[in-house]
Amino acid sequence: MKWTNERSNNVEDRRVKAWKGIIVGSGLGAIIVGTFLFFLGGNVSNLFNPESTASNTTKHLFLSKEDKNVKQFVQMIAAWNEATWSQIFKDNKLSYAPPKIVIFEKTTHSDCGSAQVSMGPFYCPSDQTIYVDMNFFEDLQSVYGGQVSEFTIAYVLGHEVGHHIQNLMGTTKKIDQLRKSGRYSTAKMNRISVALELQADFYAGVWAKNNNNRLKGAILEPGDIEAAVNAAQVAGDDNIQRRTYGYINQESFTHGSSAQRVEWFMKGYNTGDIKQGDTFKSLLQ
Q: Where can this protein be found (predicted)?
């Protein structure tokens, strides 16, 4: 995946902590960022250079060169999403407002409650913000066998932006109202929730297609789409359940099977058409 100079101002980096009046980078944050940069081909050893350690006379915000590189990468992906979705919405006579992205380590706060390191990336509709702890990608690599690349991360962030699209389109509100109404059984509401996640995968594919077209095919390189497909397969409920419990229970699916996630991401990528993403079909009739 090739980089551009586009950067978004809608990214907040919370990977630094204030302690006794001193702004420092935590050791855990360095490990998380180091792991992320390892996947991106960065030099992890530089993170532990003694010169980067904040002293008790530090008065400025401490972000190492590697920290800044991670932030710039996320800012670039955010900018790509903003530019591409703004055009897609304009083409459909809609107005687009981008989400905010918060990079954090270990824990932080959101309008949806506390964000924890174990939660992985998520979108909070209340504050229209995506929260991402980079340690998620280490888990994807070591626990579930995902082959993490730059475009893997772009796909995951694209999926979360997909939830923002659902929020803007009113889909999220509609599903929440159905859940509260008690109209459907728990089993059916679970299938509807899966459909919501599959639609976010579809939107990630739509974005990938249109973003590459917007930049005249200069972004995607051989293996990028395969990396996204691999991540979708690894994050499939059946794959996770099989690895975790040794069996599959479809009634407890939350995001869809590996095959479903790949199918909807590729449908979004192949069509590039936001109108082709009806994952709910007859579920809401």
A: Membrane
